[in-house]
Amino acid sequence: MHYFNYQGNELYCEDVPVERIAAEVGTPFYLYSASTIVRHYNVFTEAFADVDHLVCYSVKANSNLAVLKMLADLGAGADIVSGGELFRALRAGISPDKIVFSGVGKRDEEIRFALESGILMFNVESTSELSALSRIAKDMGSTAPVALRVNPDVDPETHPYISTGMKENKFGIPVTEALSIYLQAAKMDHIQVVGADCHIGSQLTSSAPFGEAVTKLMELVSDLDREGMEIKYIDVGGGLGIIYGEEAPPLPSDYADTILDAVGGTDKTLIFEPGRVIVGNAGILVTRVIYNKKTAEKNFIIVDAAMNDLIRPSLYDAYQEVRPVFRTEREEIVADVVGPVCESTDYLARDHSMPAVEEGELLAVMSSGAYGFSMSSQYNSRPRAAEIMVRDKRFEVVRNRETFDDLVKGERVFNG
Hints:
9-stranded mixed β-sheet, alpha/beta, 8-stranded parallel β-barrel, 416 residues, 12 helices, Lyase, Ornithine Decarboxylase, Chain A, domain 1, TIM Barrel
């Protein structure tokens, strides 16, 4: 459920008309509903109310400070994959002892930053990383708390670009090798084994792969218990999908049933890393029609947002619904909604059935709260869009639109 609805024939975000925001801040812009974020977080965490758990929001989905601060206030932790995301999480007020550090390529300076900050644990993805953690922790006179990220070789039945739990993926340690590497880690003076982790992919629309992966993880945890290792945390990752079009992902309550069945009656703390399911449907991208272009083959609706603003359709051939901000009775057409970027792959929707729209109209690209702005760029020297947050009847710019000066910030002419 989200709070983007038509009141009469005009699209609102909560109690604010989208057109009013566009008139004040210009287009394109990302628009987030605070009430939707709060609701989605609460529904997710309440599904696990009967067990000890920690929700570590996946910062990469949407790293705006306003989003992170809102989740911090709700008690969320953070799943991070870079030093920059750690900086953002701390700046937003997320407690370091609720932060887990994932990712296959942690640099020395990032590891030092995380150790200095006192994060909860590192999700280790290779023996090389384990050695680096041990070396750096020794230099700092510290101890690195770790979980091994296990690759369970489970097909998540999602887009291959966002699959992370199969043996051909770069992520994690093969489940067949995990026990021996845990035993190696337990002997390292500056490593403390505290958890076990797996994450199999993103935008999963079935509970079955989650159950299969966590069952394999729990078999490993049983082996670790028999070896006398004190495993405190079981990190089952994220990946629960949302509705973009015709998908029917499990509800958080159904997802919880699957996870809890797989872990059994464990007394360990469960860690979850939801991202898209919290913020995906809590945001839209608002854009204005520049031109209509009709050829013998196609209808093109050319708008002022582009693949540099929202790359999911181009990168994953992903579907995202496009709605007019003002709905009226008019002809339905099939069109490509495209941007000004000089690439044939620059589209927000292809062969999309939608009302014929006029030049100057506003369109809303739905379900853009996750992996929208966070994956945007300045390609074609296009300043990145503004971000706006709405709560009830108020809205606020939570990231200014970039200017031309921002495009060249830090650059200089070479005079050699």
